[in-house]
Amino acid sequence: MNNVIEALAAIASTIDNSKDEQSIVNMYEIASNQMESDEQAQALKYGTLALLSDVGKKRIKRWIYYRKFAKSIKKLQGDK
Known about the structure:
Shape: flat
Helix content: over 70%
Structural class: mainly alpha
Number of helices: 4
Strand content: under 5%
Largest sheet: none
Radius of gyration: 12 Å
């Protein structure tokens, strides 16, 4: 789970520092490849989508992706 949180922090930093779409996509791909399981990759995906929805001011999409992210994180915590 820590891998997911650290990767999301890096992605959020990239979003803040660079509005270049390709930089954000590259950071996501790098982070996704470093995930140890499909569950971690799925949590990363939903977390990233929630971040991007927030930046794009898409409140409903942000809420949907945040809920999916939260469920994915809970599932990861249950795997311990």
